[in-house]
Write a structure and sequence with these properties.
By secondary structure, this protein is of the alpha+beta class. It contains seven helices and ten strands. The strands form three sheets. Strands 4-5-6-7 form a four-stranded antiparallel beta sheet, covered by helices on one side. The longest helix is centred in the middle third of the chain and has 20 residues. 28% of the residues are buried.
Amino acid sequence: GETSLHLLRREKPDLLVLDLMLPDRDGWEITKLIRSDPSMGAMPIIMLTARVEDTDKIIGLELGADDYITKPFNAREIVARIRSLLRRAQFSQTTAPQALRIGNMELDIDQRILTVEGKTIDLTRTEFTLLQVLMANPGHTFTRDELLEKCMGYAYEGMGRTLDTHMSNLRKKVEPDPGAPLYIQTVYGIGYRMAKGGV
């Protein structure tokens, strides 16, 4: 665990596949440290672990992992997910500089900075991409599968809960009252939408 942090700071990889069970520091602690470090904070992280409980997945995603794969795993699936995350990272770097605004929330696409009421909010790469898609299409309802495809590069059965966890994390960061969201609205039985116009 300790060695991996030194390697990450020195090598600055494009993506990290991280096992949870490591000596010295576990994968959860490393994820927290990466997300709190401005020089590495936007690095995509895929957690790879034998832990299959939903609570473990939720913890991993809440700490800032972009994806979570349980063992035993299919190597081709891991490669597909890595390619998907790298495509998203490349796409976000090549988009034209712009800012999206909804109410008191502003998303600077070029600088990858979110401000809510003038305060900078830290987002994971997946949270940023989700928010970008929603804010670029205010009032449009996206199904869970559409959001998974647009933001994570794939959609398949069982990932809806992963998306819901990311949305819950986003609401905690941007909503005045996450229990009664103003910005990110749930459309029951369908998916999510961003409130249209100022809120």
